[in-house]
Amino acid sequence: QLHLQESGPGLVKPSETLSLTCTVSGGSISSSTYYWGWIRQPPGKGLEWIGSVYYIGSSYYNPSLKSRVTISVDTSKNQFSLKLTSVTAADTAIYYCARSIWRTSPEFDFWGQGTLVTVSS
Amino acid sequence: QSVLTQPPSASGTPGQRVTISCSGSSSNIGSIYVYWFQQVPGTAPKLLISRNNQRPSGVPDRFSGSKSGTSASLAISGLRSEDEADYYCAAWDDSLSAAVFGGGTKLTVL
């Protein structure tokens, strides 16, 4: 069974860079069938797609965050990562990593448990 | 101000049938598939309906999805207490080149 696990600091200072890693187990991140994405959810609010990456490194971002986001993949470690620069309190959220079947689709069929990142000094 | 519009709340009694609506536009629901997610408080979202009306393995047939034009609906029949959760619709938006979600509907089982 596929398992995704987010890891990274739970507290980030304003203006700094948020960095998270998603480790995939029970399946290969190098499968040509899937894309790997990040979705976030501010406390008590709805879901927002951040972006996705393909195993060869091609990445696709939500235009609303594109200037601050980088998503990369490390196939040797079966991991993909998120970097979000110049964070503010508005970036405080639960961050989920997930697998999708198409690039142009929110068909996220497997999710990590999520990790809360708080932006505060 | 979500791209997809859902009612903030819905409710029903055990055994009842409830529907949750999702309204979009020609650049998202009107042109491509709709997806539905169920999120029990404190847990990650779970894919409930894919490609308008397909149930992933393990999803009870009490859950069904439909789409007409730029709107979609999720129906839950034989409502059970464990169905109490937040439900989100989602689609790809061609104009935004982004996956978009509805604001979510909190379902209460009375």
Give the key terms:
heterodimer; A: 121 residues; mainly beta; seven-stranded mixed beta sheet; four-stranded antiparallel beta sheet; globular; B: 110 residues; six-stranded mixed beta sheet
How would you describe this structure to a colleague?
The complex is a heterodimer of chains A (121) and B (110). With 121 residues, chain A is mainly beta. Chain A has no helices and eleven strands. Chain A has strands at 3-7, 11-12, 18-25, 35-41, 48-54, 59-61, 69-74, 79-84, 93-100, 108-111, 115-119. In chain A, the strands form two sheets. In chain A, strands 2, 4, 5, 6, 9, 10 and 11 form a seven-stranded mixed beta sheet that branches. In chain A, strand 4 and strand 5 (48-54) form a beta hairpin. Chain A starts with a strand and ends with a strand. The mean pLDDT of chain A is 96. By secondary structure, chain B is mainly beta. In chain B, 0% of the residues lie in helices and 45% in strands. Chain B is built from no helices and nine strands. Chain B has strands at residues 9-12, 18-23, 34-39, 46-49, 63-68, 71-76, 85-93, 98-101, 105-109. In chain B, the strands form two sheets. In chain B, strands 1, 3, 4, 7, 8 and 9 form a six-stranded mixed beta sheet that branches. Chain B is globular. The termini of chain B are far apart. The A-B interface holds A 37, 39, 46-49, 60, 62-64, 96, 104-109, 111-114 and B 2, 32-33, 35, 37, 43-47, 50-51, 56, 88, 90-92, 96-104.
Task: Please summarize what this structure is.
The complex is a heterodimer of chains A (121) and B (110). Chain A is mainly β.
Per-chain topology:
The complex is a heterodimer of chains A (121) and B (110).
Chain A: E1 3-7, E2 11-12, E3 18-25, E4 35-41, E5 48-54, E6 59-61, E7 69-74, E8 79-84, E9 93-100, E10 108-111, E11 115-119
Parallel strand pairs in A: 2-11
Antiparallel strand pairs in A: 1-3, 3-8, 4-5, 4-9, 5-6, 7-8, 9-10, 9-11
Chain B: E1 9-12, E2 18-23, E3 34-39, E4 46-49, E5 63-68, E6 71-76, E7 85-93, E8 98-101, E9 105-109
Parallel strand pairs in B: 1-9
Antiparallel strand pairs in B: 2-6, 3-4, 3-7, 5-6, 7-8, 7-9
